[in-house]
Design a protein that fits this description.
alpha/beta; Leucine Aminopeptidase, subunit E, domain 1; about 475 residues; six-stranded mixed sheet; 15 helices; 2 domains; single chain; Aminopeptidase
Length: about 475
Amino acid sequence: MREIDCLFDLLAAADSGQKTHSIHAVSADGLSAFLADLPAVQREYLTFTGFAAKAGAVVLLPPAGDGPKDAVLGLGKDDSHAPYGALPYALPAETLWQIVTPGIDMAQATLGFCLGAYRFNDLKGSATKPARLAKVDTAQNAVDQAWAAWMGRDLINQPANLLGPAELAESVSFLAQRFHATCDISRDEALTRNYPTIAAVGRGSARPPHVAILRWSGSDADVDAPLVSLCGKGVCFDSGGYDLKPSAGMLRMKKDMGGAAAMMALAAQIMAADLPIRLVLRVGCVENSVSGDAMRPLDVIRTRSGKTVEIGNTDAEGRLVLCDLLDEAAAEQPDILIDAATLTGAARTALGPELPALFSNNLEWSNAVVAAGTAVHDPVWPLPLWAGYDHWLDSPIADSNNVSTSGFAGAITAALFLQRFVTSTQNWIHLDLYAWNDRTRLASPEGGEVQAARGLFQALRKRYKFAL
């Protein structure tokens, strides 16, 4: 993983010595009043160009004198951070700007600016430089959230030949070092003994699986502080195994560790904000490949819990990665157990690429995450853990099959499979996400995305009454 503190190069003190220019952020409803207050030459220019304050529209104003240059950003009717994501590459490269509009939420503006400035340029010889934004002290949490998103996006965008199981585990270790947490990494015999289904998934690859476990406590967290446990599917590349994906289905499978990246981004936000909790992050780092050693259809595998699983499809490997992690995490009886995975195409068919599916056995937690995600413009949508479909996972020779006997409700049955490894009294949230932007939007460049991480952070912050 690259060192992404280059993010902070985007932000500079207004008195840094670099000439600072002004941005006027204008909503559609406020456009008439804004135009009335402008010097005539600028008002006439905006009118002539047809500026309508559409969200993300950026116009450089003609100078009204010898002072700094001005730009106008349209907000439309969008009250989110997203319109500010248009600024970094619409303004001249490396110039420094400050938003001068009264009443603007500078945390929102900073978050949008930083998220919109992200590009994965590591492997290019040269790249366009973004503009810079004057830093404000009240936006530090926004900067921390942007750092977490950049980290997760980098991991998802990294080609699979450069990010295998060992490298993903090392990235968890890097995260632990940054926030003075501990990190234990299991591999080889210890992994086979403690995480047999992860070992089975990784058996077909020349790159052996790893499990990375990060542990951290907030500075105000004592031994009785709430325990938050996170589990992430870290399949660095998914060929499908013997149930081989078609070539088109493999093209984006470097993103199959997107659940791990999202949980790492959530952990980074929690630690940066010093929430008064105890945190455990588990990441199953593995590659699903084809070889003479790979698991086969109709193999039967004994999981960490002792339950046996018949392999109905080797391409349903993500739930096998998570089931051992969930079993271990649930044994610690956390206050809330959250997992995330790029698990099923069925969730995308139901909700599309921009809306992760949320499953939970606790309605209060489910409602809290949905509400928090909506509030911070990082939405999720609940789907049911419909018990009536549970028997579809029955196997004639094992405790369960890893896939349903029905072709319906694939996201639900995948969640029901995972629920078998969570105790009935355990508060649990499962997120089935896409982890990718198919197109560039204002603060969401095409490529990897840590969906739901900001919404989950907001839900945890509110749950534990931590004011930022």
